[in-house]
Specification:
Structural class: alpha+beta
CATH topology of the largest domain: NADH Oxidase
Largest sheet: 5 strands, antiparallel
Shape: globular
CATH class of the largest domain: Alpha Beta
CATH superfamily of the largest domain: NADH Oxidase
Oligomer: single chain
Strand content: 15-25%
Radius of gyration: 18 Å
Length: 183
């Protein structure tokens, strides 16, 4: 799958088949995360792969919107040292994980970490040192069916040239992507 196709086909997947993900694929997914951009090349990230079903259940129970983690084949926990741009760096690594997984036809979902009330509980459960922040929990697995895309904003609703121009929402809905000056 080429990069653009992978980006356009990525979806949040919350239902998984009971099928193992090979070590080779997991290593490649983590390698893709490792290659994410990082401010000043600090690379503050570390990754914890959780396979144990009881641990997946415990993590799922701690979250507010991640109960489906218990059904995943694995969960990759992304943590970063508390540096100036830890959240940006860890988010870039998280997106690389999701895209690499999709390239292997593996579904995943970004479950928020930073600023969530369960952050410290998850970090404590996983014995993560205090100088690290929880960025994301990424349950992965071969999915039963890739979900259909949600409706997205029209191209012309989100694009501006040279400066921000406030647009009338009703007019935006009527505009067609083919009428864009960009194309």
């Amino acid at each position: 799958m080429d990069a653009l196709d992978c980006i356009k086909k990525r979806r949040c997947v919350r239902q998984y088949l009971d099928r193992e993900i090979s070590q080779e694929i997991l290593k490649d997914i983590i390698d893709c995360a490792r290659l994410a951009p990082s401010a000043n090349n600090i690379q503050p990230w570390e990754f914890i792969i959780i396979k144990d079903k009881e641990m997946l259940r415990k993590i799922a129970c701690l979250t507010d919107y991640g109960t489906f983690i218990k059904d995943a084949t694995i969960c990759i926990v992304v943590v970063c040292k508390d540096t100036k741009y830890f959240l940006e760096d860890g988010s870039a690594a998280t997106e690389n994980i999701l895209l690499a997984a999709r390239a292997y036809n593996i579904g995943g979902c970004w479950v928020a970490g930073d600023k969530k009330k369960y952050c410290n509980d998850v970090l404590k459960l996983l014995n993560v040192p205090r100088e690290y922040k929880l960025i994301s929990l990424i349950p992965l697995g071969y999915c039963k069916n890739f979900p259909t895309p949600h409706e997205k904003k029209e191209f012309n609703e989100i694009l501006h040239f040279e400066k921000y121009i406030l647009k009338n929402i009703k007019d935006k809905r009527k505009e067609s992507i083919k009428n864009s000056r960009f194309l």
